[in-house]
Amino acid sequence: MYLRQITNREAGQRLDRYLCKLLPMAGTGFLHKMLRKKNITLNGKKAEGHEKLTAGDQIALYFAQETLHKFMGHQPLEAAETSAASKISATGEYLAAYKAYPGIKIIYENTHILLADKPVGILTQKAAPSDRSLNEWLIGYLLTQGEITEAELAACRPSVCNRLDRNTSGIVLCAKSVQGAQLFSSLLQNRTLHKYYQLYVKGTLQDSQLIEGYLTKDSRHNRVSIQPHSRANDSSLTKESYIRTHYRPLKAETDKTLVEVELLTGKPHQIRAHLAGIGHPLLGDYKYGDKNWNDYYKKTCQIRSQLLHACRVTFPELGPPFDDISGRTFQSGLPETFDRVSAQAARI
To answer: Minimal CA–CA distance to 18: which of 43, 50, 65, 56?
Structure first.
C-alpha cells in the first residue's frame, strides 16, 4: 500500500485530476477502474474521482510496488542510476535559475500566490528546452525556502500564470498552489484583475482614450497586425481577436509622453502594436516603432529594449482563502531607465 497525504498546496483539485498527475503513465480509464474496485481510496473510503481534495486528505493506492513505479513513470531498477541523475539534474536546474536571477524581487506572497517583479531580459516561460526562465526561478525559490518538496512537484507544480515579453519588466503573477492557479485562471478569464502598464510613446498624447481593434498574429515572424474593423469574412486570414486598450497620458515631454495603459484584453504585443497603430510607438521598440527615434535614445541613454513596465495590479473583492488580497492594489516602481530618458529629448 502507498499512502499520500494532501498538502495545503495540492488542495483544491479534483481527485481524478490529482491521480493523473501522480500516475502520469496510467490512463484515466484504468484509474476510474481502480477507484471502482477500491484499489484507490480516499480517507479509507470508496471514491468516485470527482471529489475535491482538501489539506489532510489521505489517498491510499493498493498497488504492487512494480505497478506503482510503472505508472509513476519511474525507470526500471537497472536504470536507477540514470533516473537518480535525471532527478538531480531537474532539481539542479531550478536551484541554478534561482541563484542566477538575484534581481527578481518579491512584491507579495502568501500560501497560494506570489507576485514577482521581473527585470528586463528574463523570460517568463521557456521558449526552448535549454532556456532558463522565471518558471524555473519560482520552483528553485520554493525549494530553497523549504516550501515545497520534490515529491510534491509530481502532482502540483508552481508556475507563472501570465506572460510578459523578455524585454518587458514588472509584475508577474505566480501560483504556488492549485488554488492559486485556479484563482488566477478565473480572474484572467473573467477579466476581473485590473492590470496597468507604464510606457513612453513618441509624440504628444493629451486625453485619455479607449482604443479598439482586431488583432491577427503572424506566428512565423512573431508579429501582430491590428485593423480598426473586423475582416472575419476574409478566408485568407488567420483567426482574429477583438482587443481593447485604455490609455491615460501622465506627463507630456518634448518629443514623447509617459502613458499609463490598462490592458482590457490580453493578447501578444497588444500594447506595442496598438499604440504604434495610432501613430505613437513605444520608445525602444524596434519591431513596431520608429528606428531613427529609437537609435537616438539607444546612443544617448543606452536604451536597448522597449520601455514597457507592468506597474500595478488590482484584485477584485475575494472570499476565503484570499481575504488578504481582496480589493488590494500592488505596485512595482519604474526601472531607472525611465528616469534616464525623462530629461532627454531627441534632436533628429
So the answer is: 50
Cis peptide before 249 (omega within 30 of 0): no
* DSSP for 255-299, written as a single string: SEEEEEEEESS--TTHHHHHHHHTT-PBTT-TTTS-HHHHHHHHH
Is this prediction's pTM over 0.85?
A: no
Q: What is the pLDDT of residues 18-61, one digit of tens each?
A: 999 889 899 999 999 999 999 999 999 999 999 999 999 999 99
Q: How many CB atoms lie within 10 A of CB 5?
A: 10
Half-sphere exposure of 278 (CA within 13 A, CB side): 18
CB 261 within 8 A of CB 278: no
**Phi, psi at 197, each rounded to 5°:** -130, 150
**Distance (Å, whole) CA 343 – CA 200:** 12
Residue with cell 500594447: 271
DSSP alpha helix (H) spans, 110-233: 134-144, 178-190
Beta carbons of 74 and 85 less than 8 angstroms apart: no
Dihedral in degrees, nearest 10, Cα atoms 88, 163, 223, 265? 160
